[in-house]
């Protein structure tokens, strides 16, 4: 292994990489990485792998975690062949660089896979990248062991245990690694399970993936705490206090999570169902642990807490009977033929392509209004996703209007008759209302 920078001058350290042996090392490292990249590219093409967000392959095979991982393995296998070139100078530089690259790519890609589109993700990714490259520089320059020794000198005594700053940092790194692996595994399981099922089994798989992620994250945290030297049995008191705090201060939040678990297990509503909650109708696009996301056909989105879903009436328009019943109203003149109008209305609505022929549309006489006879036309559509679509209602109303005008059926306008109680022969005079004169402005002198 080459001489560390901490034990020599910068010039002496750079002279290690001057000469034919360093060029040979560089050529071998480049050849190994190029061969691995070509292998990954061919494997990606053979598998027809088109997922640009892949953690293993990445977008083109070079930005995934397999390249630095296989690069480490390849360099380790080739290293015995370079025994005549000992001591190696570039080899100790390539290994930590590949390790850092592996950690950076793994962490960033897993976080993007688990939390897509989050605004806080990029600052965290940049900060972690800078930290890893700082560790690489400390390792290459030989400052790493010295820094670790100094961190080990800073310690605290908690009970019968002594915890150093170095151990805390190691526990933090272990916790981050455990959480990343847990998120990666749970995201892979969720992606595989959610893409392989549809319909009624979808909520059950959602519950399973949520529980798997929670269990894996809990295991990762326990492993990190154990490596930090924290006695896990002492956490029983903290767990009891946390339970009391959740029961008192976070009961509404906990109720939402429990209600979400009940909804997913009972499968009363599922992703893709058309529901109506408190007058808002739309399609369920996501069911997270705390809330359900509903999007209407007009693009509006409602975030409904699960507690509201379990404690109020929810109309599931997609349950069993897939057709959705709709209606519209219209008023016609009092002197019209009621039977003819009912037939015209039913035929007009049935002519709309989205309306089902069976059951046939039906026109009902609702009331004798002051201005005309009020009819209600009931019909069904095949796709409940268009239940609150204003475009569909416009088509139905236009068809009704054309049919009534074509057969001379009048749509009445509001009319009022005024009865004069005074002398009928007395002339009526229209008096124009007086307009208020603007008040003069005081305190303004006239110019000459």
Can you give a write-up of this model?
- With 448 residues, the protein is an alpha+beta fold.
- Among the domains are: 1-153, no CATH class; 252-316, SH3 type barrels; 324-406, Alpha-Beta Plaits, CATH 3.30.70.100.
- The chain is 50% helix and 13% strand.
- The protein has helices at residues 10-15, 20-46, 66-78, 91-114, 121-140, 143-153, 165-196, 202-227, 235-249, 251-266, 306-311, 338-350, 390-406, and strands at 155-158, 161-164, 274-277, 280-287, 291-295, 301-305, 314-316, 324-332, 362-368, 373-381.
- The strands form three sheets. The protein has a five-stranded antiparallel sheet. The chain has a three-stranded antiparallel sheet with strand order 8-10-9, covered by helices on one side.
- Strand 1 and strand 2 (161-164) form a beta hairpin.
- The chain starts with 9 loop residues before the first helix and ends in a 42-residue tail after the last helix.
- Mean pLDDT is 75; it is low at 444-448.
- One of its GO terms (cellular component) is plasma membrane.
Q: Tally the helices.
A: 13
Overall 3D geometry?
A: elongated
- Strand order, sheet with most strands: 6-5-4-3-7
User: What does the radius of gyration come to?
Assistant: 38 Å
* Secondary structure tally: strands: 10
Major sheet characteristics:
5 strands, antiparallel
Which ranges are low-confidence, i.e. pLDDT below 50, for 5 or more consecutive residues?
444-448
Helix content: 40-55%
Structural class: alpha+beta
N-to-C series of helices and strands? HHHHHHEEHHHHEEEEHEEHEEH
Mean pLDDT across every amino acid position: 75
Q: Name the beta content range.
A: 5-15%
In whole angstroms, how far apart are the ends?
Answer: 103 Å
Keywords: Cell membrane, Membrane, Transmembrane, Transmembrane helix
Membrane topology: Multi-pass membrane protein
Subcellular location: Cell membrane
Transmembrane segments: 22-43, 55-78, 90-108, 128-148, 168-189, 210-228, 234-254
């Amino acid at each position: 292994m080459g001489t560390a920078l901490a034990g020599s001058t910068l010039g002496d350290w750079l002279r290690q990489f001057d000469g034919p042996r360093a060029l040979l090392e560089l050529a071998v490292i480049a050849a190994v990485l190029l061969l691995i990249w070509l292998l990954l590219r061919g494997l990606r093409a053979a598998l027809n792998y088109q997922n640009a967000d892949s953690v293993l392959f990445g977008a083109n095979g070079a930005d995934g975690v397999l390249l630095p991982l296989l690069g480490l393995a390849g360099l380790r296998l080739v290293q015995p062949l370079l025994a005549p070139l000992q001591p190696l100078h570039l080899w100790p530089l390539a290994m930590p660089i590949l390790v850092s690259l592996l950690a950076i790519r793994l962490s960033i890609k897993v976080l993007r896979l688990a939390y897509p589109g989050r605004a806080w993700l990029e600052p965290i990714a940049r900060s972690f990248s800078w930290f890893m490259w700082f560790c690489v520089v400390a390792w290459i320059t030989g400052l790493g062991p010295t820094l670790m020794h100094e961190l080990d000198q800073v310690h605290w005594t908690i009970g019968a245990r002594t915890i150093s700053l170095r151990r805390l940092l190691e526990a933090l790194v272990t916790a981050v690694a455990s959480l990343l692996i847990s998120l990666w595994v749970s995201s892979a399981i969720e992606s595989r399970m959610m893409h392989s099922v549809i319909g009624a089994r979808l909520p059950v798989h959602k519950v399973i993936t949520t529980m798997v992620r929670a269990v894996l994250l809990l295991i990762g945290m326990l492993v990190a705490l154990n490596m930090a030297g924290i006695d896990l049995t002492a956490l029983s008191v903290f767990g009891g206090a946390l339970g009391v705090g959740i029961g008192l201060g976070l009961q509404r939040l906990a109720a939402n999570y429990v209600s979400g678990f009940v909804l997913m297990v009972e499968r009363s509503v599922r992703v893709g169902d058309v529901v109506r909650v408190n007058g808002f109708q739309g399609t369920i696009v996501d069911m997270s642990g705390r809330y359900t996301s509903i999007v209407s056909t007009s693009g509006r989105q409602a975030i409904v807490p699960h507690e509201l879903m379990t404690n109020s009436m929810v109309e599931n328009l997609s349950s069993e009977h897939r057709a959705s019943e709709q209606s519209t109203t219209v008023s016609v003149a009092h002197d019209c033929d009621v039977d003819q109008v009912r037939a015209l209305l039913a035929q007009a609505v049935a002519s709309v392509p989205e309306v089902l022929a069976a059951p046939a549309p039906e026109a009902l006489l609702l009331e004798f209004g002051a201005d005309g006879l009020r009819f209600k036309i009931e019909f069904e559509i095949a796709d409940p996703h268009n239940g609150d679509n204003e475009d569909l209602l416009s088509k139905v109303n236009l068809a009704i209007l054309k049919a009534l005008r074509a057969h001379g059926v009048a749509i009445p306008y509001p009319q009022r008759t005024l009865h004069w109680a005074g002398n009928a022969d007395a002339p009526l005079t229209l008096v124009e209302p007086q307009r208020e004169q603007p008040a003069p402005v005081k305190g303004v002198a006239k110019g000459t």
